[in-house]
Amino acid sequence: MKESSDNRPVIDAEEVLAGICHWVEIETPTMNGAAVNRLADEVQSSAAGLGCQVERIPGRDGYGDILIVRSPWGGDGPGILILSHLDTVHAVGTLEHANPFRRDGDRVYGPGIFDMKSGAYLAFYAFQHLVRSGQETPLPLTFLYVPEEEIGSPTSRQVIEDTARHNKYVLVTEPAHDGLCCTARKGVLHADIKIYGRPAHAGSRHQDGRSALRELAHQIVALESLTDYERGITVNVGLASGGSFINVVPAEAEAKVCIRAPETEQLEALRDHVLALQPLDVDVKLEITAEVNRPVFPRLEGTAELFKHAREICREIGIDLEERHSGGGSDGNFTAALGIPTLDGLGADGHGHHTLDEYILFSSLQPRARMWVRLLQTLT
Ligand SMILES: [Zn+2]
Known about the structure:
By secondary structure, the chain is of the alpha/beta class. It contains nine helices and 17 strands. It has helices spanning 13-24, 33-49, 113-132, 157-165, 212-224, 264-275, 301-317, 332-337, 365-378, and strands spanning 53-57, 66-70, 79-85, 102-104, 107-109, 141-146, 167-172, 176-177, 181-185, 187-196, 234-242, 252-261, 285-294, 323-326, 342-343, 349-351, 359-361. Zinc ion binds next to helix 3.
């Protein structure tokens, strides 16, 4: 820890980076609960060392545990919820070859460094800085670390919503794409389509067959044509499969569809549309399920206020904070959908999330850490 001439701790970008490096080096693919828990162990012991009360909820369905860390001051709230995920999309071993931790000029590479270990660590560092300086924040702080955000937080959603309801603000440590702060996100709808045709020999009895793949091809084209960039609607058939053998008319096929829209009414209309799809071939059967994976994150009035406040703080620090509306979902969707002012994208600046070229900008660490300290100090 570095200190200023009057013995007060200072925000040291090298120290921030060392902490991020430590979290990145504990690889945490979502599907490996034991690996995610190794980082949870680390966060838990660091938080306990700062005098925090830590609650650990055992993981379900093979996912890691959920950590709830409360500041030693301020009582039960309502306060500020700082929302982070510890998992990444990268398998264990990515660090060794595909994207090792390294510095190249201003860029610092590593699996999950941008999404979102740097953001999660920045917020933690800011809190640590306050503790070391002997400062308490006006509002109590709750840090929530979830183990499976990258697949939509199926086991932690309830905890996120319950914890958010006890708080006044939610700050999400997702990456800051191009330095932008996120004040709204699209909602996400997932649909599964199963198609049942009729098998037949592809040569001698072709006319008796009803191809499930042919039906699927029509449905895919019809579904994707619902994409409307002007209204912000996208339809992506991300997975499709079917058939059993080259000379058999395919009896079965299936597809998984991801639909995104900026407004709840649009998302609901799209869900109803998908559930009502009819087969083109009357001899073919469709089986469809569709559910909202993440509700729309609307730009709430309270969020706009929160953004204005963050913008002021950033101006003092010398950052020109701008906002954006994102097409990607996050756990912030759950809290904003409850009407709780939610500011997202407060992590480090960088590029390439979910890729093997993922990096953060070292130069963003110092100002972003200061932004976090000031946010926690000034929100009332
Ligand atoms: Zn993320």
